[in-house]
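Data availability (excerpt). The following record was deposited with the supplementary files.
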Amino acid sequence: MPSGDALVRIDDSGRVVEWGHPAEELFGWSAEEAVGRSVATLMSEAAAGGERQRERFSDTASVLVKPVLQGTSVMWHVLPAGNAMSGQDVAILKAMFAHSPVVLHVLDNQLRVVRMSSAADGLSNTPVLGKHFTEAYELADPEAEAAVAQGVLESGVPVVNRLVRHVKAPGRATRRIHSVSYFRLEDSPGDAAGLVASAVDVTERENAQNRLALLDAVRRRVGHRLNVGIVCQELVEAVVPAFADIAYVEVIEDVIRGNEPPPVPVRRDVPLRRTAFQGRIACHPVEVVHPLPVGTPFSDVLSDLRPRLVSIEEDSSWPAADPARAEVIRRSGAHSLIVAPLALRGQALGVVSFYRHQQQDPFEEEDVAVASAVCAHAALCIDNARQYMREWIVAQTVQRRLLPQPTAAHTTVDLSHLHLPSPEGGGAWFDAIALPGARTALIVGDVAGHGIAAAITMGLLRTAIHTLAALDLQPDELLARLSDTAGRLAAAYAELPMDPLDREPLTAGCVIAVYDPVELTCTIARAGLPEPVVVFPDGTSAGLSVPPGPPLAETGNAPFPATTVSLREGSTLAMGTAALADEVLAPSGPLRPLLDGAGTTPLPDLCDDIAHALPDGNQTGETLMLLARTKALPKDRVLTLSLPAGPEAAPIARAAARHQLEAWGVDEETAYTTELIVSELVGNAVRYGTPPLQLRLIFEQMLTCEVSDNATSAPQVKHARTIDETGRGLFIIASLADQWGTRYQAQGKTVWAEQPTGVSTERRNDAGRPA
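Predicted structure:
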């Protein structure tokens, strides 16, 4: 009996394979007479069998012959009129397979092609019918497609609009992309009989979307950093592999240095720097500077700023003009090249080269427009970075020139500093200024902001603090005067028309520590910067509780409290900018252990350890730290003598000074001058000062004479008349000494005078003492 409701089953050769009882009644032949015979023969016999036989066939005119898949063959079922499709349905199917632009394939339950529409012609260079569909067509991922089709066949759940990529076939310019949908075919009992696969060529649509996505990615990813090299690297990372397999950028050297781009056409000898490269093999080393050979598309692009789609063929003439590049192209397997200019406002900035390998489609004319748009955006970003780079170079140069170069040598402190400049350039600085009495002022400052403005402000404040330090002020007084200076600078900036600083208040911080190697004390005051840290010789560390003062130039009369602490010899003082507060200087900072165990570590090594341990990109502001390891001035290089308050003080002081100068090996002329200075200083203290009086001689890099008393009155230089018997003391001191001054303490004052030691370097031993 034929399957289902079919009257007759006919194989694909036209022979009857099943003949049911209803067919015997309709057509008049028994199953024995019909099975195995050709339908054409039966039809001929019916036509010749007379009127009765023709009447039988006229009663069956409403039957439908329906194709049904069976294995790899098509079986034809003859159905009664009630089970048949309408003639309109048949017409629609014929039209779909004959004229629809949508590619249709009928697959059996083994996923073999048993029928396809006329639109499928040309998709394969070999016969398709009877083959597994992944063998009939060269798919990029045949295993994945077979799994998807099998899943639809088993579950019955259709898959719609799946993008399927084809392998590039011989004779085709590009590989194609189809949107494929799979639907299951079922026989009458509802079993899976096969699939219908529809496919629409969406290559152009996908390429257009990919180009738009590329341009969007370039705009999002390129140009966030104001550095020419980084912008170029962002560019090649954005286009590889989305657009090209290899990309590299060459920028004119003057542009990288921040100078104006050269006019077009660019001279032949203008050097370019390879600033970025991206690809599967390292073909082009970066940072190589070279001119472009004449007669190549790369040099031509810099002549007319026109992008080019270049053929890479063995018979091309241009590779001979650039054999090094030609060898790189050969090694990379590239077959298609676009050369596009980096240009802005008619000025050339550089050249970008895009390559594709043999496994990829060659570039098309539409890709040239995409490359031009990509390079136009990159050129704008590079020009912004160029202008910023020029300012950055100037700011960095100004800052380097304004910092100590190199750090001055000090016999009572060992110094080292860590300076990690901000990418934008900043206003951080440090200083170590020698003060009278072998003391040293240690300074760290930081001007908020970046660029040239911050560097110049830093230079002005540093100059001011050097000038104020010559007055031998205490750290708190020194900060107060410096804050006044910063306030005047801020007011002056605000008066300048169109100056950016009138919209950004001047903010600066500073910490000053004055170390005394005789008393082994350190007096510290700070304005806005973190508390210093002291590392003791045994490796333990502690923060110094220095009360905070307001930032420099802040309005108001808030004081800058000073704190004096004892520092035994071999202690290390660490002072830094706010960028180091949380990481290094805070007690719970992750890098604080580097300080804790550094009691005897060489200071340069300690700076290197901290620099390597600092996290990248987390600091806000400029990173600067000054390390100072203290030394004590040997006792045999200091003379301290208490003096009576009467006239006998001067002769006592002169005698003690003469004896000590002989012990130090000071020459006679210097000794005579020193005795005279000592006599005048003591005489003034006896006449105008308040007991107790004290003389101190310090023999270090300079010979210092100090006389202290409890009076707070300030000494003044007088110009005595010829007939006056007094009033010439300070005038004589000012004439004989290199410099002199007055220093105020909590109780009284100290008047000091300095002069060269009068001992040649040959007479000093390695410790700096007299021979």
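Summary of structural features: The first helix runs from residue 21 to 27.
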